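Dear all,

This email documents one entry for the complex benchmark we are building for the journal club exercise. For each entry we list the sequence lines for every component of the assembly. Then comes the predicted three-dimensional structure of the complex as a token string, followed by one or two observations. Please use this as the template for your own entries, and keep the labels exactly as they appear.
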Amino acid sequence: MLRQFFGFARQQHLILIDPTRGLTAKEPGGFRGRTLTLDQQRELFRRWTGNDHAHPHEALFGILALLHGASSAEVRMLQITDIDPRTQTVRLGKRPHPVPLDPASWTVLQRCLAHREGWPTDNPHVMVAKGTKSGRTQASTAYLSHALDDCGYPPRMIRSTRLVDRVNTMDPKLVAAAFGMDPEATLIYLADHIDPGRLPDQQRN
Amino acid sequence: MRHLTPAFALGALQRGKQIEQFLGAIETDGRPGLRWIALSPSRTGVTIYLSEVEDVGTDTFLDITEFPPLDPNEETWGREVAVLPTPEEALHQAEYELAADPQRWVNDGVVCDEYQDFRAARRSNP
């Protein structure tokens, strides 16, 4: 707005120098993306854990993003040896501790492994696509980028929903430690958030 | 040696490995940001992904894949620019259309180290 005003003034020869020239307007950094409503989360949870015939890869990627904040890279890199059936945990990416899976996520993982067993492959990754079944590389970014197409919600939106929720209800440092993220990365998801108790009208109640 | 020679970059793509390149600082609508690209081979060809993110890095926070995108709806892997049938064509397109440097390709995940060098260079030569 200011830039437009001074641009106009300069054009009309009302001023000699546009004081906004060369200035950059730095908006506050932080998360500005969309998140899922509770109903949308329920709908997706039912889709991936019910008998909705969602592809096992879609269900695994989706449930790990929705419930565990997993990134596409973490899901792509997940190998068979990262799974501990005894403790029902998986090692995800650079997370410092194994992630305990809830019964729903564990069932989705088992379904994905059953799907994988139908393909004779030496590829060590959990998610094996047609293009990677004869090799040992992880599924491509291109493959994962379309894995959630059928559910109708983009992966970042699903993962961000969990991160925004966790960061705003827990200590961001704890979230960073649990999710193997840099503490400063979790602070991005605190943007524009004010604890309700700090608002004046809330304090009066 | 962090950077792949052109032959190694091509070889990586032919083996199904993703390669990346940090392209430096940008400014979109007066907002400073960073740009990098990734070439990801798959069964359907080689996809070029362009990422443009806010520069929120610090000396200890260098993982640009976690930086918020300038377009809030953009995915973590960036925007799909093109899908080319062969690695050679993908490299050519990236270098021709996006000004990628043939000598500065790096392996998957190394682009954060490139950003670290960029920060150091910017500090010593603001």
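Observations: The two ends of chain B are 26 Å apart (CA to CA). The mean pLDDT of chain B is 91.
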